[in-house]
Amino acid sequence: MKFECKDLDRAFEVPELMSDAREHARDCPSCTNDLWVWSEISRVTSGLREEWDTPDLWPKIREQIAAEAPGSRRRSWRLPAAIAAALLVSVLGAIWYEFRPGISIKDADFLTEQTLKELEGTEAAYVKSIGKLARLATPKLEKPDSSLTAAYREKLQVIDSEIAELRASIDRNRYNTRLQTELAALYRQKQETLQEIVHREHN
Amino acid sequence: MLLTNALAEPPAADFLAACQRGNLEALESLYSLHSSRMKSVAFQVLRDRSDAEDAVQEAFLRIYRALGGFEGQSSLTPWMYRILLNCCHDASRKRTREAESALSAEPAISNQLPLQLAIRRALDRIHSGYRMVFWLFEAEGFRHSEIAAILEIPEGTSRKWLFEAKRELKRLLTEGRS
């Protein structure tokens, strides 16, 4: 094949044709120049990289990472931790109440009015915390579908439906310890799921 | 200066695990390894050093937060740069919303040679996809497989766009000559 000027672009795309292009360029000033420009574009571009010192950048990033590290999240976890502690105390109290001397097994399945109030207060705190998290998580859940987002949405729907079911049962039997404990576990699960979504990055 | 492909090698499992645990020393090593190139890539998109630094900072935080979910099946490097480019695009969109022209901040070009200057200006005139592939390959030293992973395009497209970018640049640099 006789190499002509019009073949030069093809040679840039197909490296095997480059030797023919160089051969042709010996007697063709225009192609010589095009070949030079082609190679100079690559050579010169590496010199266009912008480099500068940023001694303050890592300390800033480090500070933010440290603030977000699990050990530093105590402040933001204070409310859930308090809720969990209150719940534990309530449940232990309920268990003690169930098995204290002189109480029948039938009575032991039920909470006292006082413990119930405490648990309902705990539930209200959970709902408040979940509400805040849900507001933060909503924009991420509304992003274009990814399998992960869809999985989170599905998980939340399942938890919500279980909560609704359990709430209906509790409304019929609000003094039942087991149902109250299960409800608290579901709220905790929903809270943890929302926290995962909020802290997770979509790429 | 082209960076070596050492950056592209998969990180040792224990190093990755340390980063995932939030070990600050490991994260600092990761930063030291990539920050220069990340700033350069961010600058190429944002054309402003301060904005580029902000984008790198935001990218690192997003990387830190998402590292727990990184399973190591793909290379860490393209994954990090994909996050970086997302941060750059977010910053660019924000800047547009704030009615600041993305091109208002001209890079420091006063000390550049005529051909460098011409290439810089020609780069602004080519398709943004071609420009990014060209930049990642020619200036930052990424391989086509990595560029494909960063930009989420087929490897063949990366090769094709590099060729198209160079052809466009050559046309722009030589137009008016004949």
Distance between the termini of chain A: 49 Å
Question: What spatial form of chain A do the alpha-carbon principal axes imply?
Answer: elongated
End-to-end separation of chain B in angstroms reads 33 Å
Specify which chain pair forms the largest interface. Answer: A-B, 36 and 53 residues
DSSP strand content of chain A: under 5%
The beta-strand count of chain A equals 0
**Fraction of helical residues of chain A:** over 70%
Radius of gyration of chain B: 17 Å
Number of helices of chain A: 9
- The computed structural class of chain A is mainly alpha
Features:
heterodimer, A: 203 residues, mainly alpha, 74% helix, B: 178 residues, 8 helices, globular, disordered N terminus
Describe, in plain words, how this protein is organized in 3D.
The complex is a heterodimer of chains A (203) and B (178). By secondary structure, chain A is mainly α. Chain A is 74% helix and 0% strand. Chain A has helices at 8-13, 18-25, 29-45, 57-68, 74-99, 105-108, 113-141, 147-172, 177-199. Chain A is elongated. Residues 103-109 of chain A have low confidence and may be disordered. Helix content of chain B is 68%, strand content 0%. Chain B has helices at residues 13-20, 24-46, 49-66, 76-97, 114-123, 128-139, 144-151, 155-174. In chain B, helix 2 (24-46) crosses helix 3, helix 4 packs across helix 7 (144-151) and helix 7 (144-151) packs across helix 8 (155-174). Residues 1-6 and 100-109 of chain B have low confidence and may be disordered. Chains A and B meet through helix 1, helix 3 and helix 4 of A and helix 2, helix 3, helix 4, helix 5 and helix 6 of B.
